[in-house]
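User: For a benchmark we're assembling, each entry needs the component sequences followed by a predicted structure for the full assembly. Here are entry 17's components. Please fill in the structure.
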Amino acid sequence: MADQGKVDPMHQFEVQKMFDMFHVGNHEVAFTTSAMWMVIAGLLLWVFMIGGMKRQLVPGRWQVAVEGFTGFISGMMNANIGPEGRKFTPYVFSLFMFILMLNVIGLMPFGLFGLHPFTVTSHFAITGFLAILSFSIVLIVGFWRHGLHFFSLFVPHGTPWWLLWLIPAIELVSFLVRPFSLALRLFVAMTAGHVLMKVFASFIIDGIAAGPAVGLGVGIPSMALMVGISGLELLVAGIQAYVFALLTSLYLNDAINLH
Amino acid sequence: MPQISQFAENWYAASQIFWVLLTFGFVFFVIGRGMLPKIEATVDARDRKVADDLAAAKAAHAAADALEESYRQQSDASRAAAQKAVTDAKDKAAKDAEKRLAKIDAELADKLSAAEADVSAARNSAMAEIESVAAEAAGELVAKLSGVKVAAADAKAAVKAVLHG
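Assistant: Structure for entry 17:
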């Protein structure tokens, strides 16, 4: 009985297969809970953006909200890359909005309506895909624009000649680590936050199971912490999406304005 | 950690990659490439409109300032012209008065000198009459007293000498 009542904080991250679709080679492609939330996020984002398409000279509230997001990203691209960054605004904007939507959806209390929210960005497969996508774009843009000269990225300005054997090696490692740090940061932040919330939630359930005195003594502080952590997680959801977009824009800046 | 252990399952990675490709592709092409440029164009158009309107307002302000300046200059000029006309008129009036006064003065001086001439002429003639009357009287007195007949010319000369010292 006690074993069944135990909350497994990792169970929430399990992707459930909903139905099979087709095979690619010997791999099966299925519609999963993760896929469902990604579709929902994409559609919600689409609906949100439609509200900004009225294109009025004097915008309404919804249009202001949408223009706030677009202005935020295009401002960031302008500040980090310059006028040439405008070309990449669609990519970074899509990245930011998609990650933000997935992060926030994962935090929504859909459980109240019987739906089990799932944080797609807590999966390394997803964040890794997006990070590799960003990294590939950086590589392609870098070599496209600068050719082999792009390798001079590994020799920063002002490197003394007697350190030329060491600095490029360090720079190369830090460059190659970028996709991993990009992917891991988001995945770890999302996972940690959700584990933390589940652990505190399990404290309340276990406390109540242990009796009313323990239930109140443990449950009330845990609940208070949960409320605080939920707010913090909303902040983290925004910050992690921002960091992902910001770092992508900074890496793109390296590729576009070499040094 | 299912995020890692599920990689062992045949369908996991393929489904995740397939669906993130599909959904992110939708987000990128429909939202990022399709909708974002239109929204940015709207924002740019608004920014341009605001900048243009501000520039127009600034130009209108400058025009109004120039207009006010030219108005001020015009009113200054007309005020100066009016002042000049007033001083001219005053000067002319003063000159006219002076001229008239001078003319009257001259007339009066002429009249005075004519009158003075008349007076002196009258006096001279009176003097001459007195001389002749005195010479006659002196001649008669001498004749009565001494019986000597004195020539009229001598009597006249003697009287003249006495009268004029």
